[in-house]
Sequence to fold (196 residues):
Amino acid sequence: MRTSSSGRLVTVFIAVLTALLLQVTVLPHFAWRVGGLGVVPDLVLLVVVATALVTDTRYGMLTGFFAGLLLDLAPPADHVAGRWALALMAVGYVIGRLAHDNTADVGRLEPDGVRRPPIGLVLVAAAGGSFVGTSVFALSGIFLADSAASVGELLPVALIALLLDTVAALVVVPASLWVFRRVGGERTPQGLWART
Fold:
């Protein structure tokens, strides 16, 4: 069953908004302190990763841009607006290309025509998305003189963020795919953890 574009849009908006609310209200209480900064899993980034995995590159980029813009404007934002929009747009592009350029090589094709990517693809997409998103955000802060931290201080933060995002992807990406399939009627990879 295919969903309409408005149904897909509403579903992605619900997933992004839920991730954003959890990220700015609940997760700061569990932040891992690194170099004076609190690091939490980036749930919004992981929803962008899930969207890029099941749609196309353009939709992943647009989702990343608007999700990043919401993240830029959500309190307690203390940076120049647009940095997360740029970072998550890059994530949507990179993950969309990674997933869809290698579709024939990754996962198995089921009788219903849905490709089932292995868990390895999900973990690589989450780690790659975290690296790209965190790097673009940090480098844009240095370029715009919006960050008081140096590259050396940001490196441990980026590594911890990558680790947390990869672990969180084990829950967030399948949950997002389930929401896309159930609420939006999107044909997403079911049996995501199936052996190939």
Remarks:
- The chain has one domain: 5-182.
